[in-house]
Every structure is written in structure tokens, then in C-alpha cells.
């Protein structure tokens, strides 16, 4: 122990796949554990985890994938959003031992040679300030675009519109409703909506061109497939 009271070995000096003794919360080595295999961003990780370890804590504390953020830890802020099987979820509410589908985090969303269109749009539109919520916003938007492309309605979708049909038009009102589970305390909502509209083809621009919602859904699915294959 040095003069500042810290041990000489930093917690981050451990191997990325080495679980901490006793799992989450430091409640002792007697907690039940299981060997799990997780497919994350195209890579397979073998881990021994406390059954109570959330997917968020697994990503951050065991695999050093710190893009997903711990905000409320109650599934209310969206900062921890990742994609599981292509669907957006709050990783703070999911136990890692239950994850039997591929996981895509913000670290794996981009392609090999360029950013994901949503990442480019967020930069172009200055759709962030402190950046803490941005990984969750982008992952949530990717999942949301796929949902809209599949025709899934939202709370503000006209009730006479058939579900599961043509892609849902992504008006600003639709985007705000579909993204309402992701909170930005800096108040960058207007630019976040604009960035998502750029990718969804709501406005013209050089970023991705005039891409319709169905093409966007295919593009998002292709990126997710590539990152998790």
C-alpha cells in the first residue's frame, strides 16, 4: 500500500476476462456462479459469473467494454442500452447468465472502416454535450430504426394504421416517442431527433442521402449481423 492508501495493483490491471471474487457487489465467494459463454461484438467470451451479475456489470467490470454507462441502474434512463439479438434492451436489468443471443454494444456498432451512420449523424448534428448518454442513445436509435422498418407501431402511431406492415413513417413526434426511454440531462433532444431523421431519410443531406426507412432497417440489420457473426 502506498502513501495515498491505494494498493499497488490497480483493479484495471487484471485480465479482462477474469471475474472478481464473489461476483457483483463483493458479497463473498459463496455466491452461486456459473460458467457462461457470451457472444459480444462478434467475439466469444467464456466467463464464470455470479448469477446476480447484470449484463451491464459484465460488460463494464469483466470485459472492459465501458461504452454502455451506468446511470440510474433501474432501467429508467437508457444510458446502458445495448442490442441483444438485434433488439434494444436496458443492460442494467438483464442478468448476464440469461443472454443466449448475440450482444452488440456501441463498441461493435461501427463497421470495420467507418462509423455507423448514426454515429456520423450525431457528430454532424452535434447531438451531444457531455456524451454520457450518447452510447445508449445511438444503440437505442439503431434498434428503434429496425423496429420502425418492421412496421412496429408506437404510442403515437395512428390507431388505424396496420401493425407489421409497411415501415412506420418516422416523424419528429414518432422519434421523440420511440426514444423517450433515453434521457439526456444536457437537453440535446432537438439535435438527437435531427440526427436520427438524417439517417431515417427524414431530411436531405450528404450524410447518408435520401434513404427510406426500409433501407435503413436493412442497413441496421446488416451492421448488427456483421458485428455479431
Summing up helix and strand content along with how strands pair, one would put the structural category as alpha+beta
Q: What is the CA-based Rg, rounded?
A: 19 Å
Helix content estimate: 25-40%
Spatially, the strands of the biggest sheet line up as 4-3-5
At a glance:
The chain is an alpha+beta fold. Helices cover 31% and strands 11% of the residues.
What does this structure look like?
- The protein has 229 residues and is an alpha+beta fold.
- 31% of the residues lie in helices and 11% in strands.
- The strands form 2 sheets. Strands 4-3-5 form a 3-stranded antiparallel β-sheet.
- Helix 3 crosses helix 6 (189-200).
- The protein is globular, with a radius of gyration of 19 Å.
- The model is unreliable at 1-16, 19-26, 202-217 and 223-229 (pLDDT under 50).
Keywords:
disordered C terminus, 11% strand, three-stranded antiparallel sheet, two-stranded antiparallel ribbon, alpha+beta, 229 residues, 5 strands
Break the fold down into its secondary structure elements and pairings.
Blueprint: E1 33-40, E2 43-50, H1 55-62, E3 81-84, E4 87-90, E5 103-104, H2 106-109, H3 117-124, H4 134-149, H5 172-178, H6 189-200, H7 213-228
Helix pairs in contact: 3-6, 4-7
Amino acid at each position: 500500500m502506498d502513501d495515498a492508501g491505494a494498493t499497488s495493483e490497480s483493479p484495471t490491471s487484471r485480465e479482462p476476462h477474469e471475474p472478481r471474487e464473489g461476483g457483483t457487489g463483493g458479497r463473498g465467494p459463496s455466491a452461486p456462479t456459473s460458467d457462461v459463454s457470451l457472444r459480444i461484438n462478434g467475439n466469444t467470451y467464456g466467463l464464470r459469473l455470479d448469477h446476480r451479475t447484470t449484463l451491464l456489470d459484465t460488460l463494464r467490470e469483466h470485459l472492459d467494454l465501458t461504452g454502455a454507462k451506468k446511470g440510474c441502474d433501474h432501467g429508467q434512463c437508457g444510458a446502458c442500452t445495448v442490442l441483444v439479438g438485434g433488439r434494444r434492451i436496458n443492460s442494467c436489468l438483464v442478468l448476464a447468465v440469461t443472454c443466449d443471443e448475440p450482444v452488440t454494444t456501441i463498441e461493435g456498432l461501427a463497421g470495420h472502416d467507418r462509423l455507423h451512420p448514426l454515429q456520423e449523424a450525431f457528430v454532424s448534428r452535434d447531438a451531444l454535450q457531455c456524451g454520457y448518454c450518447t452510447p445508449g442513445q445511438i444503440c437505442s436509435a439503431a434498434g428503434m430504426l429496425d423496429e420502425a422498418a418492421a412496421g412496429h407501431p408506437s404510442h403515437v402511431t395512428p390507431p388505424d394504421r396496420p401493425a407489421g406492415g409497411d415501415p412506420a413513417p418516422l416523424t419528429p413526434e414518432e422519434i421523440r416517442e420511440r426514444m423517450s426511454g433515453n434521457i439526456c440531462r444536457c437537453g440535446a433532444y432537438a439535435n438527437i431527433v435531427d440526427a436520427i431523421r438524417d439517417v431515417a431519410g427524414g431530411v436531405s443531406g450528404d450524410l447518408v442521402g435520401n434513404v427510406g426507412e426500409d433501407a435503413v432497417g436493412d442497413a441496421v440489420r446488416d451492421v448488427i449481423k456483421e458485428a455479431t457473426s
